Amino acid sequence: SPVPAPAGATHPLAIGPVGAPEATVDGFVAQYLRNLNFDRGVTLSASTANDRFYALAYTVRDYLVARWLEGVRRYRASDRKAVCYLSAEYLLGRQLDNNLLASGLSDIAAEALAQCGVDIEELRAQEVEPGLGNGGLGRLAACFIDSLATMSVPNVGYGIRYEYGIFRQTFEDGRQVEQPDSWLELGSPWEFPHPEAAQTISFGGSTEKYDDGGVTRSRWVPAWSVQAVPYNYMVPGYQNGRVNTLRLWSSRANHAFDLSVFNAGDYVEAVRAQTFAENISKVLYPEDSTAQGKELRLQQQYFFVAASIRDFIDVVLPEDFDLTRLPERAIFQLNDTHPVIGVPELMRILVDEKKMEWDAAWAVTQQCFAYTCHTLLPEALEVWPIDLLGRLLPRHLEIIYRINEEFLLAVRERFGDDEARIRDMSIISPDGAVRMAFLATVAGSKVNGVAELHSQLLREKVLPAFDEFFPGKFTNVTNGVTPRRFVRLANPELSALITEAIGDGWLTDLERLRELEPFADDADFRTAFGEMKAANKRRLAATLQARDGLTIADDHMLDVMVKRLHEYKRQMLKLLHIVTAYDRIVSGEVEASSVPGRTFVFGAKAAPGYDMAKRIIHLINAVGSVVNDDPRVEGRLKVLFPPNYNVTLAERIIPAADLSEQISLAGKEASGTGNMKFALNGALTVGTDDGANVEIRELVGDDNFFLFGMSEPEVEALWARGYTPAEFAEKDAGLGRALDLIGSGAFSGGDASVFAPIVSNLMNDDRFMVLADYTSYIAAQDRVDDAYTDTAAWQRSAVLNVARSGFFSSDRSMRDYIDRIWHTEPLG
Ligand code: T68
Questions:
Q1: Which residues are in coiled coils (predicted)?
Q2: With 50 as the cut, is the pLDDT of residue 661 above it?
Q3: What predicted TM-score, i.e. pTM, was given to this entire model?
């Protein structure tokens, strides 16, 4: 169906559609060379690798754009409800292969480039991944928008185009050093900037009452503003002709305004003020689990949320749309509390700008938002001091006060003047801060946790009063991951094996992996599976060699712990196991040849201001140097810690892994999503009963999962009894020795002071009960060693892990959100 022609158009191409280039090798080559010549302004022979990469990206784009525009047109002609996913982070990973796969052009592109004498591998390596997220939360957003496009569900992903994403990690003498992530340095071929469509976003100032034809109303008189410039990215569905939009906002100075506010006749000062505005989207905050209450962060949050809501109302919806019907057209999904300031913003738009009655506006708002919580850690729950919020967004603070007032009135009506309850439920905390999770819960139509256990704890422990007050509001949606990126692209060998065994179609219907179960007992299949793992290890070895000069032994078990560095995730527990395994061999307690060779792989970034996490990174590197240099364990134990773990590296490491470490203290990891990626790639998990591990274990079966450690109720019971970590170090000789080795300077050239703070923290505080779970963890690792020696049995378990993990597709998560929260439908 052609795009409607503008009035006066007569040329057939103007009436359109212009159409994509022909999906043939010849068509691809022609378009590729055209882009190289006319967009890059170079000939093939004079081109740089970056030119050739750009031309390739532009060519892939050219195939997708026609479908994108057509989809936008069809959506606008429909009256479908769209999912507006509001997320401060999107950890996208590289786009090239994903977009080739989605458009079904992988083979054509490979052949076309080969015929041009261009090395596609070299071009792949040119792409800098947009690291616009910290970890699980940002990657989840990226998986979700992939699934929505694949399921043809209308969706706009809204977020921030940070100029600097998550820092690039390097090590100096084993210590983390952060480098700026200047991912835009060579440009970004996938984005479509629209500076002409910028929106004005205001801040500061005051509020005033005014007379509006006999009605007294409030309005905001802001003091300063910036421009929000949209950058569109295509989000193609997997081979379904659908392309959704990711719209990221970039801040820019609002010249007219800045000249008056920031200078008095001083041109240079005025231009300098521009950097003030541009600061808002300058850099991603690298904290993944603390809420610091920094003003710039609140500016970022309001900036992107205000621009996004306005965009949906003014640009996406038809002109003069009746906003009382907004819930029929939009659901704003809040990815954690970061976008919650959108709640008072929508109220402000409806009440102050559209002159809707408060109650009607509140009814609309409550139906338009839903909130996903990603944590249980108290220090990660966002609160904004009222003085800060009032200074930056005075009208929003007033609106929050009124929401709270009416909410607490309703609580009093239900429960009487129970002041303790009122204090516990007030959106404004006793020390004068806005509790964003409370605001989100009061405003949202639904509140969900991200795995069964997490949702249960959220209801029962974090927000029980709200659960009682709002029956039916709390629900669970267990996280998922996109099988397109994390199986098909990351592990083409496994994908081929699966397709050979069960046919195709599984990539969009992942429960079909169940059909692999019988192959677990097929010796030929298991052998092929083993060869796949070996090939992936060789591929990883080549990557690590080229990237970091690291080497991996061929015949080792690959034991992997990759995730953000945080005490609750317990990288220290993993280290204690390594030190124990090392100590057992060098002390002669075990014969080196009696245990399978293991390579331990870490990947982890620490928040730059998180001292203990950085010290643990230093210790991992220190233990690694000692172990790797000790001839007594040569060929048996090896520790690798490639720096700068990111999506690109994850795609290499996960398919090669044999063992997946998911060892958080029970009750602390909301879900985990790495755990799902490993299981889907045939690694066995050693894990606690935490987050989605619980569901993984239930699905793959106890025989195919190494469970250890206290359960969440056991953790609670131990806290209640009183936890004295030093007692655990006394009871287990191996633990005592490992701690002594670390504390005595065995890994710091004899200087005990370097790692003493880690040991003393474990012995005296140990908030995450590392010592309490040590004995059980070592026992589980001994079971792992035993199991690994029986190759056939191990591979059988690995195949069963793949076969039984189809539940963890983000397509299933999206179906759950649709059924339980959004009630949207695909655009047919
Ligand atoms: C993670 N959270 C959870 N937060 O830790 C993980 N936080 O269990 C879960 O699987 C994942 O979310 C997806 O649900 C995060 O990744 C952050 O990155 C973050 C960022 C900024 C502020 C707070």
A1: none
A2: yes
A3: 0.97
